[in-house]
Amino acid sequence: MKVALVHDWLVTQRGGEHVLEALCELFPQADIHTLVHRPGVVHPRIESRPIHTSVLQRIPRIHKLYRHFLPVLPQVIESMRLEGYDLVISSSHCVAKGIRKPPGAKHLAYVHAPMRYMWDLFDDYFGPGRASLPVRVAAHAVRPYLQKWDRESTAGVDRILVNSQHIASKVQRFWGREASVVYPPIALDRFCQHSLEGLGQGGYYLWLGAFAPYKRLDIALEAFRHLDAPLWVVGTGQEAAKLTSGPLPSHIRFLGSVPNEALAGLYRDARALIFTPEEDFGIVPLEAQACGRPVIAYGRGGALETVSPLTGLFFDEQTPDALVEAVHRFEQWEPLFQPADARAQAERFSRSAFLRAVQAEVDSLMGAPSRPAVRAAVP
């Protein structure tokens, strides 16, 4: 069986790329097709494959500018030709699932989210204060077209897998399609190998992630202006200049990008993880729990599936005041927390469970008619 793996773009190593890397393990002879590739930034298992890119790859500095091409990405992905493949597996949060499969082939789409910046998170990206006026006007102009394409391009997909029940509900709402839930592979080994003794010694709260609009780091920064507790922030991204430009209290520290080998120590020494986005799934809370640390999370999205009442607390409104109140509740709840409960919760989301579930879905798809009845596959 000849397999093509399709991914939106390869310019960073984040959650979507971890899924692709696991798919490379499952299909070691598969080719990779992507819009843009920045060599050297993703896992060696991905880099070692034949990687086929689109016409966008010829544009200078495209790995920094690719977001500006969003209105034409549907045409670009549809122009990419796949020939001779029996199975196409797309890993998609933007347009990868819209690629045209060869005649007679099957298409299995692993969907991280429908095109979030054109659906329910539109205002987080293009609302007032989130983008310049020309960008906002352009986004409003192309939104109906991109929504229509995002929905209609699923016609070429035989089976849809998603990373959470939260995204399954969005797929049903926005696309009118059902989906199987296969939780993504979480590389927990480097976090679970440490002892659960002596945790939380740093005394700080930890925020970790990309500085993207929907991550809502601004909520954490504003909340901790009014809290007598240190906040350490790990990450960088498109909103870095905006979020770090103003004066901040001395107890808020920006650490920038941190090497992977240092993350476990940061998690272990933190008092708790602060998780402010409505995330499609969210790997960071599971990494923190694997290290035996609790989570204070916004109570929507994937966090509701990865954080339990034994391992964290939720706040119901995406506001600084709600987070402040949650931190105060956490201080009362903290003595009840057991690190072993957090690790046990994280270990439910293993890489092996992901590989088994995807293999079962592929076996079913290749031996069954298109668009069969779907079921949930959970670890």
Can you walk me through this structure?
This protein has 379 residues and is α/β, with parallel strands linked by helices. It has 2 domains: 3-185 and 350-366, Rossmann fold; 189-346, 3-Layer(aba) Sandwich (Rossmann fold). The chain is built from 16 helices and 13 strands. It has helices spanning 15-26, 44-47, 62-65, 73-79, 122-126, 133-152, 165-175, 189-192, 217-225, 240-244, 260-269, 284-290, 303-306, 320-333, 339-346, 351-366; strands at 3-7, 31-34, 51-52, 87-92, 106-111, 159-162, 180-181, 205-208, 231-234, 252-256, 272-275, 295-298, 312-315. The chain has a 7-stranded parallel sheet. α10 links the parallel β9 (231-234) and β10 (252-256). α9 (217-225) packs across α14 and α12 (284-290) packs across α15. The longest helix has 20 residues, at 133-152. It is globular. It starts with a strand and ends in a 13-residue tail after the last helix.
